[in-house]
Each structure stands twice: as C-alpha cells, then as structure tokens.
Design goal:
- This protein is an all-alpha fold and about 120 residues long.
- The protein has seven helices and no strands.
- Helix 3 packs antiparallel against helix 4.
- The radius of gyration is 15 Å and the shape is globular.
- It starts with a helix and ends with a helix.
C-alpha cells in the first residue's frame, strides 16, 4: 500500500497520513504483519529516506507495545539513529509562524516526551 511512495518521494505529511490510513484499514495485527513482511522500514533506510523510515519504525514499535508484542530486533541498528533536526507537523509550524515564536515547538516537544515517559 505504500508502494507509490517508493516511486517518487511524497510530502512527509502525506506519508504520515497514508501510514495512519493503512493502520486504520488493516488494524493493528495486520499492520504489524504487513509492515514486517514488506520490510518498508529497511527499504526507506537504504534509500536514505530517514524521516519515513523512522516514522514507520516508531509506528511499528508503538503498535507492538500497545499489543504487548515483542519488538522486532532486525531494526535495532535503525533504532539507534536519529534525525539531525526535528520535523514538526505543519500545524505546529503554522502556529509558530503566526505567533512569531518557537515556544509552541518547544512545548510540543516537551509534551511528546512527557507522553513517552508515561507510556513506558
């Protein structure tokens, strides 16, 4: 289902939306199975499309944790990677632009880390 994104790199917001729609359509179990079977995470990594790779891996890990499924260890090397710069959702960037302040971005990152710590 993500194949069109391999032909030409699509906008990251569109990519995220496609992944979320795929999860909704497949359900947790089938999303996990299909993502592992298709190995899109490794394909994106090898193409150096790191935001897409890391986003899909994060979704895989999140759904695994929510369903009490062990993490797939074949992506442990990728889990040690991180982006040089944070990619913010377009809504956060727009709000920061309107407010002429980066505080909204800082609050968003803080909130994400608080949520991460609660879910661990």
């Amino acid at each position: 289902m993500l194949a069109p994104c391999f032909e030409k790199r699509c906008d990251f917001e569109l990519f995220k939306s496609n992944v979320c729609h795929r999860l909704k359509n497949l359900g947790d179990r089938d999303f996990l199975i299909e993502t592992l079977k298709d190995d899109d995470i490794r394909k994106y990594f090898n193409m150096e499309w790191y935001p897409e790779c890391l986003y899909l891996l994060a979704m895989l890990d999140y759904i695994s944790a929510e369903n009490k499924v062990s993490l797939c260890t074949k992506y442990d090397d990728i889990r040690r990677c991180k982006l040089e710069e944070i990619i913010y959702p377009s809504s956060i960037l727009a709000l920061a632009s309107v407010l002429k302040s980066d505080d909204v971005k800082k609050r968003r990152v803080k909130k994400l880390f608080q949520n991460l710590c609660v879910s661990i």
